[in-house]
Design a protein that fits this description.
The structure is a homohexamer of 130-residue chains. Chain A has 130 residues and is mainly alpha-helical. In chain A, 66% of the residues lie in helices and 0% in strands. In chain A, helix 1 packs parallel to helix 3, helix 4 (64-78) runs antiparallel to helix 5 and helix 4 (64-78) crosses helix 6. Chain A starts with 13 loop residues before the first helix and ends in a 10-residue tail after the last helix. Chains in contact: A-B, A-C, A-D, A-E, A-F, B-C, B-D, B-E, B-F, C-D, C-E, C-F, D-E, D-F, E-F.
Chain lengths: 130, 130, 130, 130, 130, 130
């Protein structure tokens, strides 16, 4: 169970309700997932985290799906079950096909492998990469 | 210094030379970076790693630049200096602009932050994500 | 299920019982948590781990609650569910308020984010920090 | 070298100069460290990261030194050399003594060890911690 | 639940069946574990991963049990529950005794601890190790 | 440079000298590496860490070389440059051949890869492994 439980909309203070409303409006959904309901015990943390994510995940030089897949790549590397489940769901909703997911996993696996080969062989950086 | 030093082309056995030749042909370059020269002490490891990377990084459902940026995201999360330098260089060569890099870093940073918030608050997975 | 099951007090050998007794006396509780019951299959590992933790977590230049929060910070960064749950419980018992927990999580999240920005931008150390 | 080099004050755009000025005023110093000069290629990332850190690291329910030591604990666990050096320097400036540092390192080491013992023995969470 | 569910033998395409048959023949078992059934949605990933593991885990300069214990050490360090459970089971089947497991865990714990002490104290490499 | 510098033998207090003497006697060498000279600022941490390592790394159910290779596997996974260099040197001194090292690296790379595939595909544990 979440450390301090979940803050439901009906029980939320106005600052929290305002963030919940903005999440639902921005994402065009009618529900709030547990991540936000857990953070809501600290309205300052909730607001800052939401505003950062809203700014960062908006399409820009990279499109929204690419950003979502990068989020999945990090979450898989760190082994965060909640984040893997929620961001994989988001990526699929934004158009990630099974073929794209399989290639994403292949790259993530390979990078994790070669990171350790580079560490283990104590490889010096080539002049060309400096 | 790399654990067993670097295997230069001139000193390589035929199996290693064949991999080096394929790397240069595939990448359209005339040099081999230290990663491969370090692994070349074990021709089996060298060949397997190269063939895996060649297969995985080829454009498919995801384009080559997206794959390279995912590689960077993993390497940054793991903190592998060699891999960060070499794959950032590759991504720039394939067209990653400073704006794209800045957004990539923003997503990687945010994902690393929220992974820990999800861990720390012991958040349960929503039914909708199962 | 724990790899080799749990060693209950009634079934423990004298060396294990002695450690269990010291844990309960030191912590002023009347039960032993699963961490110790799992390690107890190896009395040497059990004794060494307990004596290390007892020495390290005792108040010194840092007070006991600060140490417990640092433990939580590491466990959250590594994503160890057992350790997060048990040390968050300990920290709350030692006086961590919801406000302190929220600030702890904010720092842990921010540090995890900025660690990756420093990695990703390949930032050189300033002379002033050497 | 930092991926896109460092943005010096004299060369900075007004948005970046404003952040630099606020960093120096808040920290009561007359120089900017490389972390900020590297991020400054993206004024949006620079401003967001600085405002988050400024808010998070200000004394609140936890004092400034405790926050700085938690930052060090995370950076040491992740193995980020830049962050370890810069935040250890900050913590010492804020009053961390060698005795406090030694205890901090002892707790960080122990937590990293016991996190893996909990993982490795596949220990189930006690009812009391749920 | 696995992201795209599990591919059972009866429903598998010929390429997947061929890999399943080789896994069962190589391992002398009559069942396929969920790891392979999950990857099987991408026959290319399945085949590459299986052939790599088959080549890497075969006895060579290191015996099969030593390799399995190294696999466990990495999985415990990364905190991957599936891999810890499945490779601990494999290692026990190949002859790992409770005493060997306890020593394995002790080394993994100690290495994780001392890795952070080396990071935290910012220790320079001795000339003798270069 | 190490955070508080290195404690040389000539300048050490009796408690530290006793540990240094035991390290040299146990390892049959006439020098102390920087890891110990850095920790020596805290004689309690120095003594505890050395006694733990001495106990853990002694041959038992696992031989000394196997333990050293497991140490390398963890250090490579965590990316600790000091620990990789020093424990690879130790393992070579204890008889690790280039062939054994190459197989060690292959297993470490593969485990890091498959840990992420298991995470990413959200694979449920088979009944047989519970």
């Amino acid at each position: 169970m979440a450390t301090y439980g979940l803050v439901e909309y009906a029980d939320a203070c106005p600052e929290v309700k305002a963030v919940y409303d903005d999440i639902m409006a921005t994402r065009k959904t009618d529900w709030i997932n547990n991540f936000w309901k857990s953070l809501a015990h600290d309205p300052v943390l909730l607001k800052r985290t939401w505003e950062d994510i809203k700014q960062i995940m908006a399409p820009g030089a990279l499109d929204a799906l690419t950003k979502e897949m990068i989020y999945v790549a990090v979450s898989v590397t760190n082994g965060c079950p909640y984040c893997i489940a929620s961001h994989t769901a988001s990526a699929r909703k934004k158009g990630m096909t099974p073929e794209m997911f399989a290639e994403l996993m292949s790259v993530v696996g390979m990078a994790n492998e070669s990171n350790r080969l580079a560490n283990g062989y104590q490889i010096e950086l080539d002049e060309q990469f400096k």
